[in-house]
Design brief:
Chains A, B, C, D: It holds the Pfam family ASRT. Chains A, B, C, D: InterPro entries: ASRT (IPR009794), TM1070-like_sf (IPR036698). Chains A, B, C, D: This is Sensory rhodopsin transducer. The structure is a homotetramer. The first copy, chain A, is mainly beta. Chain A has one domain: Hypothetical Protein Tm1070, Chain: A (Sandwich), CATH 2.60.290. Helix content of chain A is 0%, strand content 54%. Chain A contains no helices and eight strands. In chain A, strands 1, 2, 3, 4, 5, 6, 7 and 8 form an eight-stranded antiparallel beta sheet that branches. In chain A, a hairpin with a 5-residue loop joins strand 3 and strand 4. The first copy, chain A, is globular, with a radius of gyration of 15 Å. The two termini of chain A are 22 Å apart. Chains in contact: A-B, A-C, A-D, B-C, B-D, C-D. The interface between B and D is small, with 3 and 3 residues.
């Protein structure tokens, strides 16, 4: 299969609620970057986080193997530091091979969960 | 009418919950690729699924007749194999004529359904 | 102000639930094409609907005045015929001047409403 | 880091419900333009609002500092005048440096909140 996608993706809306309802981990409030690597090479990805009132943090390094998808929860990022909860952020995702990125959030702060998604901005 | 669209579409976010609430089939948790074929020819479409930790599966073959729309539920795909539930996936949708693809999910795991949609990524 | 947008827009996902909950008209289940005309001329718009198993219907004619927005409910289309409820459809929106189109649905079939939106596909 | 984005963004769907449920300010019904400025210069942004039946209002002036994100609630705009509630609107967002804009709404009119998001239209 041909390799599809772009090397740079941006999600301007980021916010992980600090609490949720329902069985974990499915109903933990979470924010996800769904990444698809259709290429025949491993994707070496660097994520930089931007905030309202402090300097950017990163890079967070993520690997997505050839011809695999990874639905990356921002909640799981640990290095260089966890993503702060209840805090506005945005991110730039840069890869060494073309990938496709879609942004999703499940918000379970109230009894019934809410969902949002969009294909990210790319260049 | 002019023919609109592109021949390749990608949805990076895929996940079909294994359960739901409410009357079926409207409130069965489902994931849909809404496909529009404005051309005057039958669209012969091949879908390939990508996973986190196994090789891609496909092609799934789908026909959308000339000047028709098909709201394809991934739940209904059977050949070469059903789409696994509660499992992250992504997909590449390739057509022999231009089409337009929009991705929608209805999640009815909790008492009140949640919805998401986005125009898919295209090349 | 400069004129922004494109002349052709496509929404592949269309479905108006036949019932809803909550005070009307805000909580009537509805599907909307939000149209913005930034130009200094009246936008003369034609909408064609596509279905799963019958020929396209249209054009539905809509006017959006210069420098105005119109949040058009598909529920309100009457001529040549109302949009059938509980039925999959898709649409092509063609304008004589550039416009921007965003697709939104409010689904109030259950006690708590659900929302979806996406910028439409354009050419 | 390279500067990413475009200088003009459009959100065709705008509507701020006049009431909500749940603890404020998180669960106040609100509409947000999430703006990311990856450049090394301050972004000077002008927002113009469009309505159904009156002339455009603006510009609203907003600053997003270099390498910062701002999740701007339309509810908070005050000058030249507050955004009317329960009223359809649309907006054009123009910046002197490239930015990325994503549109989100939290609707808390009913007991359980609903969410929508999309990357805005750009030129």
């Amino acid at each position: 299969m041909k390799t599809y996608g772009k090397k740079t993706w941006i999600i301007a809306e980021g916010y992980i609620p600090s609490y949720g309802n329902g069985p974990e981990p499915e109903f933990t409030s979470h924010e996800t970057a769904c990444i698809l690597n259709t290429s025949s090479s491993k994707a070496e990805i660097e994520i930089t986080l931007f905030f309202t009132d402090k300097d950017p943090v990163g890079p967070y390094k993520v690997i997505v193997d050839a011809q695999r998808t990874k639905h990356l929860r921002f909640n799981d990022l640990r290095n260089p530091e966890p993503v702060p909860l209840d805090t506005d952020y945005a991110c730039v995702i840069e890869s060494n091979v073309p990938i496709v990125v879609q942004h999703t959030r499940l918000d379970s702060r109230q009894a019934e969960n809410a969902l949002l998604t969009t294909i990210a901005y790319f260049e």
